[in-house]
Design a protein that fits this description.
Helices cover about 35% and strands about 20% of the residues. The C terminus is likely disordered. It has one domain. Helix 3 runs antiparallel to helix 4. The chain is α/β, with parallel strands linked by helices and about 220 residues long. The protein is built from 5 helices and 8 strands; from the N terminus they run βαβββαβαββααβ. It starts with 6 loop residues before the first strand and ends in a 13-residue tail after the last strand. The strands form 2 sheets. It has a 6-stranded mixed sheet, with helices on both faces. Strands 1-4 form a two-stranded parallel sheet. The protein is globular.
Length: about 220
């Protein structure tokens, strides 16, 4: 099952499914601003790139090094960006950011790309939220192949996402939330659980203009 958030693809492999471009009703947000580290050049570069792509109807990706230099800028389809082998090699130690037109969080393809690309960070942005996933503070587990690690973590993410999608779709059927809200909530809760079990450092934050709001419009 794919995520409506969209996602990354390597070598034409499968990624996330498509999704509507709606932003949900949100009650409160106590999450911290994304920790971008001490490098002001990186922080400035990521903020500028993400603001320029956050409202796009097609996915756009940037691979940015630790100094904020753009190594790759690429446009994808409505719900994924694909990377060839050369582009994947650029990801090692870099920060990958891209937009999700649906506004939802990470797909399985995004997590796969984080692990197999050996990236320092995977980021996704929408009109309202920004998402960040980084490897555990002590690094990925030793003694496990990248392929096995990737398969294990993406399978865990898939299981968690399926569980939360089913949970929130029940609220859709009862009329409590919209289907778009269900997908946004499910993708966030799945990543929170995945982070707790794997050590992945995950954050979600609102763009500044939305912080403290009780309701967010549908785009």
């Amino acid at each position: 099952m794919g995520s409506r958030g969209g996602g990354s693809r390597q070598g034409g492999g499968s990624g996330g499914g498509g999704g509507a471009g709606a932003q949900p009703l949100v009650a409160g947000n106590a999450e911290r601003a994304l920790d971008l580290g001490p490098n002001p050049g990186l922080k400035t570069a990521l903020a500028a790139h993400e603001r320029s792509i956050r409202n796009n109807h097609y996915e756009h990706a940037r691979i940015v090094d630790g100094q904020g230099n753009v190594l790759l800028a690429k446009r994808g389809a409505r719900d994924y960006v694909s990377f060839n082998a050369h582009e994947v090699r650029l990801m090692a130690g870099a920060h990958i950011t891209h937009n999700h037109p649906s506004g939802a969080g990470f797909s399985g393809g995004d997590i796969k790309t984080l692990v197999e690309g050996k990236a320092a960070e995977m980021r996704a942005v929408g009109a309202v939220y920004r998402y960040s996933a980084r490897p555990p503070s002590g690094g990925w587990p030793k003694g496990e192949s990248v392929a096995h690690l990737s398969a294990r973590i993406t399978a865990a993410h898939e299981t968690l996402l399926r569980y939360y999608v089913n949970k929130y779709l029940g609220q859709v059927r009862s009329g409590r939330i919209s289907e778009d809200q269900a997908w946004l909530n499910a993708s966030h809760r799945a990543m929170q659980r995945l982070a707790a079990s794997t050590g992945i450092r995950y954050q979600r934050t609102m763009w500044a203009e939305y912080r403290g709001t009780m309701a967010i419009r549908t785009r």
